[in-house]
Specification:
With 227 residues, this protein is mostly helical. It contains eleven helices and three strands. The protein folds into two domains: 77 residues, Winged helix-like DNA-binding domain superfamily/Winged helix DNA-binding domain (Arc Repressor Mutant, subunit A, Orthogonal Bundle), CATH 1.10.10.10; 143 residues, GntR ligand-binding domain-like (Four Helix Bundle (Hemerythrin (Met), subunit A)).
Amino acid sequence: DSVMATPAGPLRVRSVVELAYDELRARIVDGRLRPGARVGQAELADALGISRGSVREALRRLAGDGLVDFEVNRGFFVADVGLERVLERLEARLLLEPGIARLAAERRDDADLHELRRWVVAERAARTAAAAHDASRGFHAALAAATQNDALGRIFDSLWIADVGRRLLASRRAQPTWQDADVAEHEELCEAIEAGHGDRAEALMRAHVESAWRHWSRRPAGETDSG
């Protein structure tokens, strides 16, 4: 019993931070905390019934996700995840994901291939914008996992924020050809990765992300709020 009891304290601390993170993220995503709003640590700690330290740690995680900004001597503010931020993340993905695709073609195992195919099937069957988004993101996340490099998976997670992506894709999915094209490109990537063709997988992924970058680079700044 004493062995099991030892880690109880740290586990509770981590769970409080996790709860604070989930609550703050929800407040940002659903608009209760608006872009540009200052996030008062003391007020939130009192409202959530937790310590300021736990709120601060949750805010640091949200800053890593790009959902809040930290300003020295001023504190944390809700980030405006508008078109400029979206394009920054797409530019970073354009540098990162072709390399991920190459590594996945070299290192994937049967379980990875099964997971990639599962997400392709899920996206093809999706009937809502949120379901299509989650399946598309799931495919890319599974590809990062197939590199067998956890650091790449964490970087990918920080670049494609699921909550923002759902809102954006609700707009892009209004194009009648988008979903079929996305599925077809994912299928091509699957074939290249299954065959172990790193060069082809890299080229396909570069074209795939470039397509998204071109789409959003042509959009007016306010369009990221649609959907």
